Automatic annotation (TrEMBL):
It holds the Pfam family Aldedh. Residues 34-494 form the Aldehyde dehydrogenase domain. The keyword Plastid does not apply. It comes from the Bacteria. Its EC number is 1.2.1.3. The active site is at E265. This is aldehyde dehydrogenase (NAD(+)).
Amino acid sequence: MTDFGMDKALKHLGLQDINNGTSTGQENFSYGEIIASYSPVDGRLIGKVKASTKEDYEKVMETATKAFLSFRDIPAPQRGEVVRQFGNKLREKKEALGKLVSYEMGKSYQEGLGEVQEMIDICDFAVGLSRQLNGQTIPSERPGHVMREQWHPIGVVGIISAFNFPVAVWAWNTALAWICGDVCVWKASEKTPLCAVACQNIIAEVLKQNNLPEGISCIINGDYKVGEMMTNDARIPLVSATGSTRMGRIVGTTVAKRFGKSLLELGGNNAIIITPSADLKVVVPGAVFGAVGTCGQRCTSTRRLIIHESVYDKVKEAIVGAYQQIKIGNPLNENNHVGPLIDKESVNTYLAAIEKAKDEGGAILVEGGVLEGEGYESGCYVKPAIIEAENHFEIVQHETFAPILYLMKYTGELENAIEKQNGVVQGLSSSIMTNELKEAEKFLSYAGSDCGIANVNIGTSGAEIGGAFGGEKETGGGRESGSDAWKVYMRRQTNTINYSDELPLAQGIKFDL
Ligand code: UN1
């Protein structure tokens, strides 16, 4: 294949020697088992990293714990300055890192660039926030007393991230954690280990230039067994985990058992409600990008369209028509809309879901299938499918991380659509397409969508970093990124200060000696 400048990009990211496993960004550590990273784009081996052993993990924790003690001494705005420099480095490496994300994960180059842009944006957000980690003063019920609330760094933050956003989700967590005075240990997905090494190389350079300890940012490599070292480790007060509901259930309960905090960002089963007044010009790109963008592998991907019966045929025709225009192929080629799935296992899950939908009575509107032949040699390229289905089908209730879109009808009032939209166990993202103010507001009200994200006249994916990101129910309840999500990376302390000469007790209690 044309290499789309990949070799140059790898070099720019310090990954030229990655095949011998030396460019780990943490040269002092020795590693065990080898993890090979193959690109789903062309099946080529990109590089190898060594999985962390228990011994390596202990060394990482020692370095991180020690780094925390000095990092928390640095005033927050100065920590913000470090994050500002990190954001600038990302600006320099945007094309190279965007390309690696596209090549190792399989999303389009445009989406790879978009992901790096999210990293840059969260850095800018965090820099401003570094002067706004404000507590409150609270009136005391006692004379000569004052109460206040302070936010202190929490310690070592463990980050477990998924393959689908191999760099941005780490940055959402680290940029905030760092300005809060925490240090981070990151276990990236074993499917995208080189993206993690590339990020580690970038931040390691910034830390070095600022004479800061390398333990402020650490990576550990490997599968869930490596993640388990963190979830069981009482030295890690907060574990932030992004991935499947199955994984989150294990992480959440393990961390809770030792009274740690967890921030869970798990599966979605996101729907768009399409009402009679919806504008097709908005509906079609919103729904199609939502369903096929990142090859249906975002947790915010659109899985279900709930369409009013009066416009059902019209909407169906428009969406099916748009699917005929989708170009599937090498995601580094900017003419293509959709790249491959992450691996063959994922292809099998996709195929099995289509079969299951058919078995349950679903009608195929756009046929799926695996692509073969020139350009598709990796075996990971699939056709986005559309299936007419019912909300109660077991397969519809389940999140399949692939481009399968289910269409269903609602009749009568909006409440019927909302009932279907909320009638799944997940609660991440949702949207309504309407030009009726009353419908939009109803959907956003307490009686409307039960998701963490509820949009009007845009799709379910592509949230901006400025808002809190996350969802309810089996999505896990955590919030990352913007708004006041920073608070989870800090511990709250309530202070009562007595500046009088007396000691009156609260609640009017008399205790005379
Ligand atoms: C994810 O899929 O885990 O809202 C994150 C979006 C992106 C983030 C998705 N900004 O689609």
